[in-house]
Amino acid sequence: MHSMTAALAAGTKAPPDPATQEQGGRVTELFGQAWNWAASHIPGGNLTVIGAVIVLAMLANAHGKKGTTKTDWKKADNAVVAFFQGLFSLVKSLFGAVVTLLKALWAVLRFYGGRELRGEPRSDATFLRSGRLTAPAGAPQVEAVAMESIALAPPKVSLVKPVRRQPRPWAVATAAWIETYNGTGARALDRAVRAALWAVRTAGRVWRFLKSVWGVLRAVYGFLAPIVTTVARVVRLWHTWPYAARGLARVAMTAALLGLLVPAWRTLTVVLLVLALGAVAYAGHRFQPKPPGDDAVYGPRLWVILRDDLGLPEEELRENWLRLPESLAAPDARIALRLPWTFRGSDVERGQVTDLLNSRLPGEWVGRYSFTGEHFTAVYTHKPPPKPPAPTPEPPAAVDIWDPKVQEILASLGPDEFYLGQDTFNQPIIQKLSDEQAHWALSVGSGGGKSAFLQFLAVQMLMKRGIIVGIDPKSVSLIPLLGIQGVHIYDNPRAPQDMRALLLWVADVVDARNYEKKRGRTNFPPLYVFMEEANHLADILKEEYTATKESGAPAGDPIWRDGVAPILRLGREVNVHIIAVFQDFKDTQFGGVSLVPLFPFKILGSYREQQWKRIMGASFPMPPIQKKAGRMVLVTDNGDVTRIQTPYAPWDDTLNKEENQKKAYKLLAAYYKELREEHGYSTEALYTDPPAPSPEVAPALIQALSRDTAPKGPNGASEGGLSDETAGRGVTHPGGVTPGVTPQRDRLRLIPGQGGTEAPQDPLAAPALLTIAEIAHELTVRGYAIKANTISQHKRRRESTGFPVGVMVDGAEKFTLAQLLAFYEGRGLEKQEESEEDAEQNDAV
Fold first, then answer.
1. Are 510 and 576 in contact (CB under 8 A)?
2. pLDDT tens-place string over residues 611-636
3. Within 10 Å of residue 303's Cβ, how many Cβ atoms?
């Protein structure tokens, strides 16, 4: 009964105890105070407390369920066991909750302490020291081999090669042609060039604009790229950071996140983030990573090939066998290579390694092999540059003709010696004008100092008491010699017959002297012949010969075969010398006579490559071209080449070119007179005087102008008492630019010799027999513009034209001037130019 009552009591709910209710109210009050305190002091407030209670309840429930067995409470004997089991479960749950809380706290401390969140540390970094990434487990260790100790310091060399950019010759020639072209289509060409230039300028402006935009983009990229690169590199090396730095970064990130979530802290957080971003930008530029060196760029790829060539296993590390410098372009760069014992070091093996390095690496490398010691090694360094050639000596920049040293050299010269200038060693060059070098040929371009050189040679010729005759069709080089005694200059290009007569006279003198030489005479005074602008001379002589050529005469001008060539061949024996200036040696231009072999001594200056090859041939090496006044090259047929600087008058920087030229001509003319007076000259063995030059006739344009219309005219104002017609004040035709001219006025005042048949003549003078060329010249002097070829055509058509019959002299038909004047005045051709078409029309009439 007792047991049943106890059982019933155990299952019956007891009534509430008042004391217990009072105690519960007190507990509730204390719980409310704790709740309010937690809400005001704990971060997160009541939510934090509720979360913690839920977590503890879940942990307790989990620990209560784990490992428990179902208890039968109806069995009284198990009640104590169940009590202790529940108590143990509660204690265990509380202990588990504490352990879990401690683990969570340790995880937080580990997170903000910079530790790895999971796994083992990936580097040997400590709390305050950065570390290096540890090799994976099982990876082979790197053998410590001091590769740097096997190399020596190489010679300094630079991989930078200078590049000279110059315009192409065809571009320069094309530009010059476009600038100087003035023929058909010049206006269209000018417009096309202007359009092309406009298109180029427009394209240039567009290109510069796009280039500016690209520059801005590059500037932005240049500012951001280092920051991004530095941040990426720092983040990539996160596992090697010190723990303190990683923990600080995590604290900063958490603080930034909380600052952005809490409204009260948001403004300050944004300001701090902006400042931090600026600090990161500065640090990104200040500590930006260096670009990978050549060791990292070329090393791995080169090692793959080199390892197979050396027969090394694949597991061998590159660091044990190959070491490349950070910069292959460094002057002291060296490549250290360790060689296996199986490497025999033959020339073939060495060549293979050298070829591999030179083909895969920039620069040119040479190796030095060593097969002594513990390791076989090869050290490659930059191939030393070839030793620069010794500087080529240059002649002096200038040689002053008035220098006392130059004057001393001139005073010490022998009868046939000429001082030409200073050579590359600043030594005087003296050349004999005799024997094989009795005649000199010059080929000097524009601005090369040709005129000054000829004038300097004339100084020495006057010192040798020589007779000088000169032909200068352009009237430039020999101007200072005009008027000097014993000097005869023929410089009128409108009188080519005078130049022809001079060459024939010199040939006659050579022939006469050789005649005397055969009869025992050995000493002849020097006769110097200047033949300036020989190519131009050949042109005007050819034109004159073609105009006066008789029927059956040779096609080529015989003056070169019968006049110049005999002088060159025979003149050296009798002291007759030619100094000829050519632009080109073309046999066709000199009547088919090859003049190059007759001038074994040549002087060239300011030449072009094509000009050198035409004159000297391809067998002679061409010296460097120097476009400088007085810088010339002396060449002989035996291959001797000498570079010199010829003397000339110093240049006055305060004067322009024309003023300097006038000053030099004035000084030279005075010097020539002084030398002629001091040394004198001899006309012995000339036999006759040189042919007198024809009187120079004014050009047709000047002849057509009135000489008396203005006070400043060539003949001044008209004298008083003359009528308008006599004074030249005739009627000016519409569209004309000169006043009317009448025959009466022409007879009174014009160029002498233009009076025609009415001019006074000596009645006792015997009529002179003249050739057609001479008569054409005389007619030109008298104002008739009748050319020699027109007279020759009338002569060939004598039957139809009634051309007078002349007198045969030495196989040539000659005429008197009166015959042809009467013939042409009868045809009504007075003071008029008759063309070939006019002659044919007159013949038809």
1. yes
2. 888 788 777 788 887 888 889 999 88
3. 19
% of the chain beyond a pLDDT of 70: 76
What tokens were used for 117?
């969140």
Buried b (16+ CB within 10 A) or exposed e, 132-156: eeeeeeeeeeeeebebeebbeebee
As a whole number of angstroms, the distance between CA 632 and CA 645 comes to 6
Q: Are 420 and 431 in contact (CB under 8 A)?
A: yes
DSSP 330: S
pLDDT at 518 over 90: yes
Q: How many other C-beta atoms are found inside a 10 Å radius of the C-beta of residue 520?
A: 6
Give the model confidence (pLDDT) of 387-413 as tens digits. 887 778 888 988 998 899 999 999 999
Looking at the DSSP assignment, which residues form a beta bridge with residue 490? 471
| Mean pLDDT, rounded, for 207-216 | 90
Residues 295, 322 contacting (CB under 8 angstroms): no
- What are the strands, taking DSSP E only, across 269-344? 322-323, 334-339
CA distances from 89 to 6, 51, 225, 668 (A): 28, 22, 62, 135
CA atoms of 648 and 651, how far apart (whole Å): 9
Q: Which residues contact 48 (CB under 8 A, 6 or more apart)?
A: 38, 42
Residues 6 or more apart in contact with residue 51 via CB below 8 angstroms: 44
What residues does 641 pair with on adjacent strands?
A: 635
- DSSP state for residue 561 in the 8-state scheme: I
Indicate the burial class of 648 (C-beta count within 10 angstroms; 0-12, 13-18, 19 or more). buried
Mean pLDDT to the nearest integer, 81-99: 80
What pTM value is reported for the model? 0.50
Asked whether the predicted pLDDT for residue 648 surpasses 70, the reply is: yes
Alpha-carbon dihedral 285, 286, 287, 292, rounded to 10 degrees: 60
Confidence of residue 675 (pLDDT cuts 50, 70, 90): very high
Q: Are strands 631-636 and 641-645 parallel, antiparallel or unpaired?
A: antiparallel
